[in-house]
Amino acid sequence: MSLTWTQYIELCKPKIGLMIALTAVVSHMAVADQYHAPAILALTLAMLCGSAGSAVVNHFWDRDIDRRMPRTACRPLAADESNSNPARILWLALFLTVAGVSLLTWFFNPVAALHLALGTFLYGVVYTIWLKRRTWLNIVIGGSAGSFAVLAGATSVHPELYTLPIIMAVVLFLWTPSHFWSLAIYLKEEYRLVGVPMLPVVVGEARTAQVIFANTLLMVGVSLLPWFMHELGAIYLVGALLFGIDFLRLNHALLKDPNNRPLAWKNFMASMRYLGGMFIAILADKNWPTGGF
Question: What pLDDT does 293 receive?
């Protein structure tokens, strides 16, 4: 018996894929003079494919620990590995990755495709296979995969990198630990149970909350650089400050009560709100008052 179509889609982690695609599209729109629907569609499909390829590898490699964690026990390969064909799963991962890279190469340029390939490799191999079970730095290094989505989106317009997309990539690089370590506090016991050295497991909730706050403070500071460097204007500045302060406010609350799991979850959700708010601020600033398409 093989996996169902629904299970194959689940292997691709479509929610994460959509976030990666959105990140690339916002970066594309931030540096483009004009928007073209076919280009945005091609970029979206390519990023979805690349993200899905690394997600399939993640599901396959982590199936042993996934079945021991309540949050992931129902994942297709964790729930019933006898239903899967390992060769078919890995071929699927390879096909999706090659499809995404090929689409970017054909529709845009090899530089954008290279950034997608690097991001896929970082998440699927560096994070999942090499680092996740070895060091608390797993999400710091592996999480940089999201930064390559920013660079892929920007280089799909201009193969040469310049100030704004590089700053955006750094902001996303700094965002990932604050985002994930908030979730790791919430899921600390699950990670401890399976021996994955996420930061709260290694140093405890209090120390992790301190690192999250310091990291977010640095992230918010870096996020203001596009305004100081005249890459973006006042609309962006207001958005970056509002959403940054909102995220820092919850980080500070967690700092005072680091063992509060519901508060850790609120921080995790606030990180998503921050990222969405930054996307809106960038696009609003770039398109005011001329509009988008």
Answer: 40
Q: Where are the domains of the chain?
A: 1-135+145-159, 162-293
Provide the pLDDT for residue 233: 94
The domain made up of 1-135+145-159 has a fold known as: Tetracycline Repressor; domain 2 (1.10.357)
Q: Are 144 and 118 in contact (CB under 8 A)?
A: no
What's the pLDDT at 114? 97
Rounded distance, CA 213 to CA 226, Å?
Answer: 22
Amino acid at 133: R
- Residues of the chain where predicted confidence (pLDDT) is lower than 50: 291-293
| Non-local CB neighbours of 49 within 8 Å, separated by 6+ positions | 96, 97, 99, 100, 103
Residue 81 is predicted with a pLDDT of 60
pLDDT on residue 50? 97
| 3-class state of residue 114 by DSSP | helix
Q: How far apart are CA 50 and CA 24, in angstroms?
A: 12
Residue with tokens 């970029």: 43
How far, in Å, are 52, 53, 58, 123, 143 from residue 127 at the CA level? Answer: 15, 14, 9, 5, 8
Fold of 162-293: Four Helix Bundle (Hemerythrin (Met), subunit A) (1.20.120)
DSSP letter for each residue of 238-262:
HHHHHHHHHHHHHHHHHHH-TT-HH
The DSSP letter of residue 13 is -
d(Cα 275, Cα 245) in Å, to the nearest integer? Answer: 13
